[in-house]
């Protein structure tokens, strides 16, 4: 008698979680250049059409996996002080890359030279959801009276993330805590208190 194995069909967030985990594992195994929809589908035990229904390209699939680690507005702790809020924000965003394969960021950045869609998606990651987090930290500080909220230009609101992104892009990996402390103490706080 042959034993029948019935596999429950995954849907929704359970399926998405499995797919995005498979993306991480594939990146660790083959890097961005070797990542294929076939490989991700096989690792996630699903089909390519399932992937393409959600993510029309490899670049969009990888960005979805990266975006999953970005905290939502309101998830950041309010320490009651601008400095510690900025340090907490930048460290948390930088640590998002700790679980990713070594060299993955550098590989993705190298691919942006030949994949304009990937370049746009990476820029959107840093200027979209992540910029909302920086704005939240600055608005809380303004509400506490630590800085002048009415003087915060869009460029100043983006500066914490621009500095983090610059370091990530230059190094190809997350910066150390010392870098974040120096950026906050030597650049951001003097600027924010001077305006």
Secondary-structure blueprint:
Blueprint: H1 12-34, H2 37-44, H3 48-54, H4 58-67, H5 82-95, H6 104-112, H7 116-127, H8 129-144, H9 154-171, H10 177-194
Characterise the protein shown here.
The chain is mainly alpha-helical and 195 residues long. It has 10 helices and no strands. The chain has helices spanning 12-34, 37-44, 48-54, 58-67, 82-95, 104-112, 116-127, 129-144, 154-171, 177-194. The protein is elongated, with a radius of gyration of 20 Å.
Key phrases:
single chain, 195 residues, Arc Repressor Mutant, subunit A, Tetracycline Repressor, domain 2, 69% helix, disordered N terminus
Summary of the model, kept short:
With 195 residues, the protein is mainly alpha-helical. Helix content is 69%, strand content 0%.
Mean pLDDT: 84
| Count of spatially separate domains | 2
Helix-and-strand structural type:
mainly alpha
Which oligomeric form is depicted?
single chain
Distance between the termini: 79 Å
Count of alpha/pi helices: 10
Shape, principal axes of CA atoms: elongated
> How many DSSP-defined strands?
0
CATH architectural category of the largest domain: Orthogonal Bundle
Q: Percent helix among the residues? A: 55-70%
Q: Return residue spans where pLDDT drops below 50 for at least 5 consecutive residues.
A: 1-6
Main sheet properties: none
Strand residue percentage: under 5%
CATH class of the largest domain: Mainly Alpha
